[in-house]
Structures are given as C-alpha cells and as structure tokens.
What we know:
By secondary structure, the protein is of the alpha+beta class. It has helices at 32-43, 154-164, 170-175, 218-228, 251-256, 324-329; strands at 4-6, 22-24, 55-58, 63-64, 67-68, 92-99, 110-117, 132-137, 140-145, 167-168, 182-183, 196-202, 238-244, 268-273, 288-295, 301-306, 316-321. A hairpin with a 2-residue loop joins β4 (63-64) and β5 (67-68).
Amino acid sequence: xAGYRLESSCGHHRTGLxxxxxxxxxxxxxEPCTLYYGCIVQTLMISPRLLEQxxxxxxxGTIGKGQxxxxxxxxxxxxxxxxxxxxxxxxxxxxxxxxxxxxxTAIPTFNGVEFGTGPSSKLVISQSHASFRSRRVGQRWQxxxxxEIILSAGVFNTPxxxxxxxxxxxxxxxxxxxxxxxxxxxxGKNMTDHxxxxxxxxxxxxxxxxxxxxxxxxxxxxxxxxxxxxxxLSWTVANQMAWLRFxxxxxxxxxxxxPSPGPTSAHYQFIWFNGWAVPGFAKxxxxxxxxxxxxxxxTSRSCLILFTGRVGPHQFLNRWRGQTQExxxx
Length: 330
C-alpha cells in the first residue's frame, strides 16, 4: 500500500525536480471527514494556482516513495552533495553581510558574508573559486560572491543579520554602535504568526491512526517501513483541510474589520486528523479524532529588537501586541 502518489500532472508543481510533491492515495483506514464531506472533498479541490482559496481539499505533502522529501534529503543529500558547484561549511555562523566597494552606485550593494567557525570545525576554503573569493580576517572568514548572495536565515535570524549589517532603523542601530548603511526602519517589524488550537474528540471506533502507534503494533509498522517504505508510516496522520472565512456580517469583522488580504482569502483553516493530534499533550487511552483550528489572518504583530551589536545567543527580543481578535476568533 503506497500512502502517497506523485502528482506528475497536477500543474502547479514542476516535475523532475529533487523535492517530490504528492497527494494522499487510498488508505487502509477511513478519514472521518471523508465520510461526512466526501462529496465536497471530491468537488472543491484546492489548487495553489487559483486565486480562489476557499474550500475543502487534500493536503499536499513533500513525500516521495514513502519518505519525507526536503532540501536536507535532496539538494544536500548523498546524490548531490559532491557537486563541484556546491560547498557546504559545517560549524559556520554568519555574523554580517559585507558591502561591495568600488561600484560607484548610490544604492549600497552587498555581495559578501562574514562568518565565524567553531573550535571543532575543520574548515578549508579555497582562496579563489569560479563563484566566490575568500580570505581570513582575524578569527573570521569573509567570502565575496562574484554574482550574488542569498540571505535565507529564517524568520528571526534574517532580520538579525540585516540589522547587524547596518540595514534597519537608524535610531536603533546607532544606539548599539552599528553604522547605518541602509535606512530601512521596517526590518524586524510587522512580524506575524498564526494561532493553532487542537480540538480532540473521543470516538467509538478503533479505525483510527492511534492503533498504528500503539506500543504493541508500532514496532511492526517501523519494520514494514524500513523494509518497503510503505505502510501507515509512509503517510501523515492528516489528509484533508478546509480554508474558510467569517461572513461579512460576523461580529468580529464588524468590530475589527477584515484582516485578510481579500474576499477570496481565508480567515481560518481546519485540518482533520484521524487520531489524537494535540501538540504538547500526551494521548489519553482510547481512540480519537481531532480538528486543528488555525487562524490564517491574524491581527497581532511582533517586532524583533536587538540587545547588542554583537552576534550571540539570546540577543534579541520578540514582542507581541494586539491579540484581542485572535482570542475571540479561537
């Protein structure tokens, strides 16, 4: 039994790439929402290509051949790690971006990265390469790209590196002794996240995913997956989802306005689980189903504030404000 099938003709994903995209296939168990919403699920398939987001549909997964597919297992996996144009440096910690010099442009351009290495690292970088140049400055390395650099350090560390490089609010940077290179006060501001609430129900059937995770059964499922990459552990515990909106006359909309990008965007999301799925809580005895309620269009905002101009742990503050609508929505 294959848990997921690769959608080579789904249209909104290219084929032949490293990372695999798939949709759920026939299972040995039944999803509770499929039993009730079966006709809706079949007719309101959600596609990321569509501007219309509202409806029910199948969850897409980055799963291929029964295994989770990601950049760690593909682009930097064993089949690609030895590419001549790929260099992966372990124990390297970026400290700031480096501004290009001698370009004669009014707008600052950043084409390099400074980073430090840990005491256990065994770092060897060629001084000259077709794609970059490198040199050692004290305890740190500086690498200059011949074309461009891509900053992809996550939600918190991306604005952190920008501000440490002099890109941000001049008043905040000056107070930390960081020279301002780009006046961009919005860096680290207007951060959002969505609230997720797990809602479980005990059910009077044993046809749930809980049975596959029972201590006396789980070793068999693990053995099956190790041998065939098939079986219950080759797919996820959730298969269907719904993107929904509050009606325009709802009290939340009337009081706080519409926080979504537009009339075809969702306010909240339901994800059905054929089993216990409440993060942070151990599963009680019995069989369960759950619906995860996710707030897609929050109004609360956060900002990231640096404590120091040096790189190090616990050097920034994540502060939230304006959560009234989130509480009422949940």
